[in-house]
Amino acid sequence: MWLCTPIRPEGLSAIAWQTFAVFVATIIGCITKPLPIAGTTLTG
User: Fold this and answer.
1) What digits encode the pLDDT tens for the residues 2-41?
2) pTM
3) How far is CA 42 from the centre of its chain?
4) Residue 9, exposed/middle/buried by CB under 10 A (0-12, 13-18, 19+)?
């Protein structure tokens, strides 16, 4: 998602889009549990 900055929604700035991408990645990490929850949250 982060690398798809040119196709971001019109109302979002590049910084907001990147922040959203980190948020979504953290949520996906919490669901799939590649690390313990604390590790995933701190990495995000």
Assistant:
1) 676 677 788 888 888 888 888 988 899 889 988 888 888 8
2) 0.69
3) 13
4) exposed
Residue 14: strand, helix, or coil: helix
* Sequence-distant contacts of 15-18: CB under 8 A, at least 24 apart: none
Instruction: Please report the pLDDT score of residue 20 as a whole number.
Output: 87
What distance lies between CA 17 and its chain's CA centroid?
A: 9
With beta carbons less than 8 A apart as the criterion, state whether 20 and 12 touch: yes
Is the separation of the CB atoms in 44 and 29 below 8 Å?
Answer: yes
Contact 40, 30 (CB under 8 A): yes
